[in-house]
Structure formats: C-alpha cells, structure tokens
Amino acid sequence: MHTSEIYQQFIADMKGTTLLEYIAVIFGIASVWYSRKESILVYPIGLINTIIYIYISFKGSLLGEAGVNFYYTVMSIYGWILWTRKDRQDRPVITITWSDRREWLEELTFCGAFYVAIFAALTYLKKDFAPGAIPWADAFASATAFTGMWLMARKKVESWYWWIATNIASIPLYFIKHYVFTSLYYCILLVMAIAGLYEWIRRANKVNLKEV
C-alpha cells in the first residue's frame, strides 16, 4: 500500500469513527494513566472502555477483539478486588513486584496456551462468523493482552512488557480493519505503556529497598 493510499484510508476511516469509539478511547487512555499511577480508578474507568469495545467489536464482527474485551471486563473486576484487599495494618496485600523464573515460565505457558486456543477458534470461525479476523495476528494481540491483564491484576512489573507487545501488534491490526482512531489509540497506549514500565520499575525497586 502506497503512502497516498494509507493517507486516504486514514481520512476516510476517521470520518467514519463513531461517538462511542471516541468515548471508549478517552476512558481507555484514562485507565492506563491510572494504572501507571497504581490507582484503583484504573478498574472502574477501564470497565467503561471494555464494555463499549465489546459492543463495537460485535457490531463489526470482530469476535477476537470482543473476546479480548470481555476478558478485560472479567479481569478488571478480579483486579479491582485484589487491589482493594488490605492486611491488618491497613496496607495493600498486593504490591508491585518482579516475576521470578517460575512465574516467567507460567506467564509464557499462559500466553502460549491462549495463542493456540484463539488461533484455532478464529481459524474455524473466520469463514462463517468472523470474516474480519486475521487469526495469527489476532491471536498474538489477544494472548499478549490476556497475559498483561492477568499480571497487572497481580501488580507484576512484567505486565507492561506484555502490554507493549499488545500495542505494537494492535496498531497495524486495527488500521487494516478500518478502525483508524483505535489504531491511533494504541499508538498512544504504546507510549504510555513504556512510561508505565519505567514507573513500575521505580516503584518495585523502592519496595525492594524497604525490604532489605
């Protein structure tokens, strides 16, 4: 695709962006901002984003994206519960920490299992139910997103690595599917994920110094 064709597609698709998509993107950006700050607001605000995107994805026959956002919704409730738990001294039960070698193996296995399952499902459903699916790309974006959301609920620094991978994959994926504004949204999320990674590294190191 030539530069002029990309530009024309960008303009045409931006004109077709709905109000709901604008609202979802605004709440999504706010949610990532709060996750970087380790604020509980990440979850109620994020739920608005994911619920809207479930609707948008189903309407556009994007079953992979709808599944991802349904998972986000469930994990947002799970993370909300974990992040609000306090010990007897009224301190958060979960703090930002690094994954050890065993946890890294679990994360890679978790991501790999979801990739295989999602790839197989989308390949089967593509012809009759999900014509907009790109199985290998959708499976990668979804599996890394699933892993990132799971680790964020547990306040693992590595969650940001998975989010970075998801954002990089999602930028061209949504552009190809004519959701240009959402593609731009993932460009912003990529920058925010890098900033979030550095912020959580700083906080994790601070916690480690206190424990020494």
Summary?
With 212 residues, the chain is an all-alpha fold. It has helices at 3-15, 19-36, 42-59, 63-84, 101-125, 135-153, 159-176, 180-211. It has one domain.
First-last Cα distance: 55 Å
Structural class: mainly alpha
Largest sheet: none
The share of residues in helices is: over 70%
Q: For the CA atoms, what is the radius of gyration?
A: 18 Å
3D structure, described in words:
The protein has 212 residues and is mainly alpha-helical. The chain has eight helices and no strands. α5 (101-125) packs antiparallel against α6 and α7 (159-176) packs antiparallel against α8.
Task: Give descriptors for this structure.
0% strand, single chain, globular, 212 residues, 78% helix, mainly alpha
Write the layout of secondary structure elements.
Blueprint: H1 3-15, H2 19-36, H3 42-59, H4 63-84, H5 101-125, H6 135-153, H7 159-176, H8 180-211
Helix pairs in contact: 2-3, 2-8, 3-4, 4-6, 5-6, 6-7, 7-8
